[in-house]
């Protein structure tokens, strides 16, 4: 059965009204705003009134470098949440919101898979509670206000060749990466080069996910740099005096969305910044809500641990004010064999030697997470093609590092398939964590980038382009150099070359350019060619989708 068939079958018989789920975590009718029967936003006031319980544990789920073979982070996150609840550990899951780009493209949705899913999956993967639309509107309102400012006399002397704020759309549309706007004469505006980002790559998405209140959201939006003036000085949203209008458009999007798993575990799905150009985690407000309303919060960070978890720990944690108590590293036998050099077509054949060769990728991620002082448990996301010999071999390899690797069958069995994982994670949290951040924000930009490259990627050195060097000088002059670094790198490799699988060493990372995201509060360091507007593949997932006369959806994974 496909993910959507499993979800639909269970939804019809089992899904509970969202008030019931809210009540499970102590939220009354007046604390939520319903969006239909099965979705709700939680009012910020309801969260402000609540304090953190004595016992509140945060579990971060991350993975090895993604491969076309698939890892299943969301699936394991959901299954682990369900398993903890089965063990009577009151648990809430916090996940990212899907973007229509990957939904229509190739990767799929963001609601898990098999019997570890969040429902109603059709709604969540499509328009949900309108957050993406609000973000797109807010992003484009700012773009329109910038062009209008120039058209109406350009009091701020904005240099139209140096505007960095792009327009946005939440779909993979490569034709819009670079566009020329304002053509057609004086009434149509001032012509200039522009471009589109996918909405999840907009700085507004990162801001929404890091903001702690409407006031904080507005202050962050005011700080956004939209480009330079003709003196090459930064122009901000505050200069344009439109932070109020943009914040207004996001006031509802800021509230965390509450849904449920197939096993009725309360789940917040809120915010979904790209994990390459941005920090790749759900909102601070949703994670905080989960921490306040449950004893255990299970959350996920995008892509592999080199990107998602590093940014979770170095960007999100300081703002959240809480570090994880445990890390779960998801790996699949298939993906490790792929890292060990096996072709996609041969991944179903038993191959312990390739698995052993590919283990270097998982090993480096384990060591990386341990550097932060965090206990690590490996979850082997079980596929039907995995053999007993392969599972045992992987468990033995992990045991050599004193790490438990648990065969996890949540895709096939839901929470029941994650009980062993849940018990191992609970046991790993028995010892006190001596959390050690990777770097100090007071260090220089060069030092911070070099620390990430050497200590997380396993690289040798960093090269900065002439442009990047010039930018670093400007950032020091502007007082922006004490912000954390958000690396924009391929998710497929520890290096900046997507073809270097396993655990490459001796490589140099080149920083082409920086993007100062002052609203989000980090400096994006661009390596290689990172796309902020993806394209659709030759056979987009859209080809399989349909809707029947009664509104039933098919082919949405
Ligand atoms: P990630 O969060 O790592 O991107 P997901 O959890 O979203 O991955 O899973 C991606 C896809 O892989 C989903 O369609 C899901 O149904 C499928 N999948 C995940 N785990 C398994 C598994 N153990 N067996 C078969 N398919 C799986």
Automatic annotation (TrEMBL):
Record key words, sorted: ATP-binding, Ligase, Nucleotide-binding, One-carbon metabolism
Gene: fhs
HAMAP family recorded: FTHFS (MF_01543)
GO molecular function: formate-tetrahydrofolate ligase activity
Protein family according to the UniProt entry: Belongs to the formate--tetrahydrofolate ligase family.
Pathway as given in its UniProt record: One-carbon metabolism; tetrahydrofolate interconversion
Catalytic activity entry: (6S)-5,6,7,8-tetrahydrofolate + formate + ATP = (6R)-10-formyltetrahydrofolate + ADP + phosphate
Enzyme Commission number, as recorded: 6.3.4.3
SUPFAM superfamilies xref list: P-loop containing nucleoside triphosphate hydrolases
Organism annotation: Loigolactobacillus zhaoyuanensis
InterPro entries attached to this UniProt entry: Formate_THF_ligase (IPR000559), Formate_THF_ligase_CS (IPR020628), P-loop_NTPase (IPR027417)
Protein name stated in the entry: Formate--tetrahydrofolate ligase
Matches recorded under NCBIfam families: PRK13505.1
Residues at which ATP binds: 67-74
């Amino acid at each position: 059965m496909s993910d959507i068939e499993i979800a639909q079958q269970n939804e019809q018989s089992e899904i509970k009204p969202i008030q019931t789920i809210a009540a499970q975590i102590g939220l009354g009718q007046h604390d939520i705003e319903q969006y239909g029967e099965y979705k709700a936003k939680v009012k910020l006031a309801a969260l402000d009134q609540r304090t953190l319980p004595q016992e509140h544990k945060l579990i971060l789920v991350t993975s090895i470098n993604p491969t076309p073979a698939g890892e299943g982070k969301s699936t394991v996150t959901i299954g682990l949440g369900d398993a903890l609840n089965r063990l009577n550990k009151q648990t809430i899951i916090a996940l990212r919101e899907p973007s229509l780009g990957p939904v229509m493209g190739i990767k799929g949705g963001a609601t898990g898979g098999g019997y570890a899913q969040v429902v109603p999956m059709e709604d969540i993967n499509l328009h949900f509670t309108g957050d993406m639309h609000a973000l797109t509107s807010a992003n484009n309102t700012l773009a329109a206000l910038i062009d209008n400012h120039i058209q109406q006399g350009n009091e701020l002397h904005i240099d139209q060749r140096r505007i960095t704020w792009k327009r946005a759309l939440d779909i993979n549309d490569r034709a819009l990466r670079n566009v020329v706007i304002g053509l057609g004469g004086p009434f149509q505006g001032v012509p200039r080069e522009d471009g589109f980002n996918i909405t999840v790559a907009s700085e507004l998405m990162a801001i929404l996910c890091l903001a702690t209140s409407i006031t904080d959201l507005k202050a962050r939006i005011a700080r956004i740099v939209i480009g330079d003036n003709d003196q090459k000085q930064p122009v901000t949203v505050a200069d344009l005096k439109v932070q109020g209008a943009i914040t207004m458009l996001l006031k509802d999007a800021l509230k965390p969305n509450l849904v449920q798993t197939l096993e009725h575990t309360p789940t917040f799905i809120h915010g979904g910044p790209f994990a390459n150009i941005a920090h790749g985690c759900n909102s601070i407000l949703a994670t905080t809500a989960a921490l306040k309303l449950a004893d255990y919060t299970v959350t996920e960070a995008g892509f592999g641990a080199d990107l998602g978890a590093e940014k979770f720990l170095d960007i999100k944690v300081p703002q959240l004010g809480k570090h994880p108590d445990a890390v779960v590293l998801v790996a699949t036998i298939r993906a490790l064999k792929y890292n060990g050099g096996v072709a996609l077509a041969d991944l179903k054949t038993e191959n312990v030697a390739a698995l052993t060769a590919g283990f270097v990728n998982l090993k480096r991620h384990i060591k990386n997470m341990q550097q932060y002082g965090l206990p690590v448990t490996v979850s082997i996301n079980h596929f039907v093609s995995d053999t007993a010999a392969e599972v045992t071999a992987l468990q033995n390899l992990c045991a050599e590092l004193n790490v438990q690797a648990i065969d996890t069958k949540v895709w096939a069995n839901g929470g029941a398939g994650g009980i062993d994982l849940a018990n191992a994670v609970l046991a790993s949290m028995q010892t006190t964590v001596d959390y050690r951040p990777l770097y100090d924000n007071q260090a220089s930009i060069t030092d911070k980038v070099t620390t990430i490259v050497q200590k997380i990627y396993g690289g040798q050195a960093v090269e900065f382009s002439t442009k990047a060097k010039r930018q670093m000088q400007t950032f020091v002059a502007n007082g922006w150099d004490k912000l954390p670094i958000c690396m924009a790198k391929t998710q497929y490799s520890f290096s900046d070359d997507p073809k270097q699988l396993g655990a490459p060493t001796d490589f140099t990372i080149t920083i082409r350019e920086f993007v100062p995201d002052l609203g989000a509060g980090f400096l994006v360091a661009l390596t290689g060619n990172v796309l902020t507007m993806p394209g659709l593949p030759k056979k987009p997932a859209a080809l399989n989708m349909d809707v029947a006369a009664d509104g039933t959806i098919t082919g949405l994974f």
